[in-house]
Amino acid sequence: YQLGGEKLWKESGKPDAEVLRSHLKLEGRLQFDDAVSLVRKAAALFRKEPNLLKLYDPITVCGDIHGQFYDLLRLLDAGGDPKSTQYLFLGDYVDRGCFSCEVVFYLFALKINRPKGVFMLRGNHECRHLSAFFNFKDECNDKYNEQLYDEIMIAFDSLPLAATINKKFLCVHGGISPDIGTVRQLSLAKHLAC
């Protein structure tokens, strides 16, 4: 069945991440309107964040997930409960694996529940060019429709590009442009669609 309504949303207006995790683990789908609402709520949080996040330890840093939902669950089990562990995800949430929608929904739900404890950066696959070339756009069309794909792409456009940890470590997905010479330039950059 499709999860949605009061089974997905708590009275606070936030998604029940545990219910969502269990449902997605069984390869369940979301009702379309609830999926869009989840994506839009996360996008609103991303738009409030700067391009350069300033974070401090303790923090668990995670690399590419690429649509591997079950690997994401194992990673979270090993890295610490997202309710109490601070996380920074470095991008590439989609493509290659078959469960990119599930990865996006679950990470967005974690972000909505802990906006100051779960952080996501933009990777090179969080753009229209690569996600259409690989399999994320097709996955969205197969499981939902192109409108959901467009909503997720709009959310991805708002993801921060980089983070510092303890003012010592620079975290980015795969490098920075040779045109950017300082961390300050990263913080002044505008969110860009690709």
In terms of topology, how is this protein built?
Layout: E1 2-3, H1 17-25, E2 29-30, H2 32-48, E3 52-55, E4 60-62, H3 69-79, E5 87-89, H4 100-113, E6 118-120, H5 128-133, H6 136-143, H7 146-157, E7 162-165, E8 169-172, H8 183-188
Parallel strand pairs: 1-2, 3-7, 4-5, 5-6
Antiparallel strand pairs: 7-8
Helix pairs in contact: 1-4, 2-4, 2-7
Kindly estimate the percentage of residues that lie in beta strands according to DSSP: 5-15%
In CATH, the homologous superfamily goes by the name Metallo-dependent phosphatases
- Domain tally: 1
User: What class do helices, strands and sheet pairing give?
Assistant: alpha/beta
Distance between the termini: 35 Å
Q: What's the CATH class, please?
A: Alpha Beta
Shape, please?
Answer: globular
Unreliably modeled segments: none
Family: Belongs to the PPP phosphatase family.
Keywords: Hydrolase
Catalytic activity: O-phospho-L-threonyl-[protein] + H2O = L-threonyl-[protein] + phosphate
InterPro entries: Calcineurin-like_PHP, Metallo-depent_PP-like, PP2B, Ser/Thr-sp_prot-phosphatase
